[in-house]
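ok so I'm stuck.
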Amino acid sequence: MKTKFLLSLVTVALSVGAVGAYATLTRAGTAAPGPTMSPSATAIAPPDTESAGRVNIPALAANLEFLGDKPALSGHPLLIEFWATWCPPCRASIAHFNTLNKKYHDRGLEIVGISGEDKTVVERFRKSTAIDYNVALDPEQALPGQFQVQAIPQAWLFDKDGRVIWSGHPMQLDEQTIARALLNQPKT
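replied:
not stuck anymore, here's the structure
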């Protein structure tokens, strides 16, 4: 009983971000570059955003290696999440994102899960866990610093023009917020 409790405490401490972004945990003690931010569910644009709080989505995508076909990210609402295979809260958010993808992909929402882990690790994980949305690798692990990620999972929702609509823990993303991102998005 004591061992199970201690293991739970360690898991919670890791998942709450006591040790930082995925870059920190996948690179044996190397801190994620860039400034840090307080965890919140408010829309915070990364430091290198365009004017009017817009993110340059093509530049963001240029840093990524997609597992599978690269989706068309510009001109669509976009939901990105920083995650890792070893992270229990990240694993829990996969089912949530699968549901969101099934419900909103045909209405234009693109979802991309971004991992800083090795390609073979992520591919092996995907063989045992269904991920129905886009998965990308950040081999240079540059994006957590740009987005000031302190803990994973961490997600950002952008409208079709690249404006940040919401950021926070993926399980806190509600359908009303997604509906705001889909406004004026033509049905396909």
